Amino acid sequence: MEEHPYASRLAGWRREILRYVHRLTGDLDVAEDVAQDALVRMLDADGDAIRNPRAWLYRVATNVLRDGVRREEMKRRRPIPVDPDRPLTPDRDLERREAIARVRAVLDTLPVRDRELLILRESGFRYREIAQVLDVKTESIPMMVARALARFRAAYLAEAAE
User: What is the pTM of this model?
Assistant: First the structure.
């Protein structure tokens, strides 16, 4: 089996990435996980296609870390509060499902762009990321969010009044 083009440098890069992520997070366990993931991705990538392998590795480690932070933020953000210490009773489960159905029904009445915008925002995306997904200027996102939220609130209240 042929050796990976960067095999001789991986140990040194692992130490660098580990130190870099540890400085960012202050958590050695997270740093080890991110460094491992980044190095595995490097081994899986086409080594000949990577122009600057060290920079590529740092970028991948940064993205892996950001993805992890985003996942944690999404876990914490729930549209309907759920108390993990209290078991979900049939009544609470029914209320929760009805509330979710109501929110989904209201979202379906909104224009597609508003729906996408609100879902991206509630999924933990930053304005810059939302702008990239929707292919608009980052500066326009705060106003777009405010308008989409206003339309959602109005539709939600109108639906509740019916």
Answer: 0.47
Q: Which domain holds residue 144?
A: 90-161
Q: Tell me, what amino acid is at 85?
A: D
Token pair listed for 66: 């950001």
**Tokens linked to 139:** 């500066």
Rounded Cα distance, 117 and 111, in Å: 10
SS3 state at 46: coil
Degrees to nearest 5, angle at CA 116 with 115 and 122: 90
Per-residue pLDDT of the chain (162 residues; tens, 9 = 90+): 566 667 777 788 899 889 888 888 888 999 999 999 998 998 888 767 778 888 888 888 988 988 887 777 776 665 555 566 667 778 877 888 888 888 888 988 999 889 889 988 887 788 988 888 888 999 999 999 999 999 999 999 988 787
Q: Are residues 70 and 94 in the same domain?
A: no
Residue 6 DSSP one-character state: T
Longest Cα–Cα distance in the chain: 69
Do 11 and 72 have their domain in common?
yes
Q: Total structural domains in the chain?
A: 2
Task: Please tell me the distance from the alpha carbon of residue 146 to that of residue 139, in angstroms, as a whole number.
Answer: 13
